[in-house]
């Protein structure tokens, strides 16, 4: 929505059943190549202007952005 991710839908309560409701976002494919830039709290992010072309990933315990080549 507005150039980004969005979801606008209604689900009847009778279709939900019982228990905890969970949502998952799964990529269409894994990003295996590209430049990984770690996100480090309280440090400036030098690639802010390129965020729209990147993908948020977790490599072991490090969270960062992968920019496809």
Oligomeric grouping of the chains: single chain
| Count of DSSP H/I helices | 0
- State the strand order across the main sheet: 1-3-2
Report helical residue fraction.
under 10%
Bulk shape: elongated
Task: Walk me through the structure.
The protein is mainly beta and 69 residues long. It has strands at residues 35-38, 55-59, 62-67. A three-stranded antiparallel beta sheet has the order 1-3-2, with no helix packed on it. Strand 2 (55-59) and strand 3 (62-67) form a beta hairpin. The mean pLDDT is 84.
In short:
It contains no helices and three strands. The chain has strands at 35-38, 55-59, 62-67.
Keywords:
mainly beta, 3-stranded antiparallel sheet, 69 residues, elongated
List the helices and strands and how they pair.
Elements: E1 35-38, E2 55-59, E3 62-67
Antiparallel strand pairs: 1-3, 2-3
């Amino acid at each position: 929505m507005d150039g980004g991710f969005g979801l606008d839908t209604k689900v009847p309560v009778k279709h939900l059943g019982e228990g905890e409701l969970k949502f998952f976002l799964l990529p269409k494919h894994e990003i295996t190549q590209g430049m990984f830039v770690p996100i480090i709290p309280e440090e400036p992010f030098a690639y802010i202007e390129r965020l729209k072309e990147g993908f948020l990933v977790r490599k072991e315990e490090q969270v960062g952005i992968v920019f496809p080549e």
